[in-house]
Amino acid sequence: MALSNPTTQSKCITEEAYTWSEANNCYIFPRFGLGLVMIGTIRVHNDMLLAASKALASQVTEEHYVKGIIYPLFGNIRKITTHIAANVAAKAYELGVATRLPQPTDLVKYVENCMYTLNYHSYH
């Protein structure tokens, strides 16, 4: 997800972001983007990125930490996606930068309805 448009105005390139953070951002940015797009955010604030980060961190259990796992298991990615995007959206509404009004009463359900679901049919 490009954070600057045009990309020539980017503060860094993907490789620099990976090197600087010593990690990839496969957990945060796709879900962050979903949270922004689904509610029509007009501005992005640091607090929204912090909300995404906290939502990700809250998905890691004590059991994970004991095993040395610092990210939630990727097998739970739909649950993780829902949690992060809903928290980003909630923060955007709190900050008054969401344009999809009124705010959905159940942001988790709204995220679930916005997510694409793969359905493969078996043809025999």
Indicate the topology:
Elements: H1 14-21, H2 28-38, H3 46-57, H4 62-66, H5 77-95, H6 107-114
Can you walk me through this structure?
The chain has a single domain, classed as NAD(P)-binding Rossmann-like Domain (Rossmann fold). Helix content is 51%, strand content 0%. By secondary structure, the protein is an all-alpha fold. The longest helix has 19 residues. It contains 6 helices and no strands.
Q: How many distinct beta strands?
A: 0
CATH architecture designation: 3-Layer(aba) Sandwich
Distance between the termini: 39 Å
Helix content: 40-55%
Quote the beta fraction: under 5%
List keywords for this structure.
124 residues; mainly alpha; Rossmann fold; 6 helices
Short description:
This protein is mostly helical and 124 residues long. It has helices at residues 14-21, 28-38, 46-57, 62-66, 77-95, 107-114.
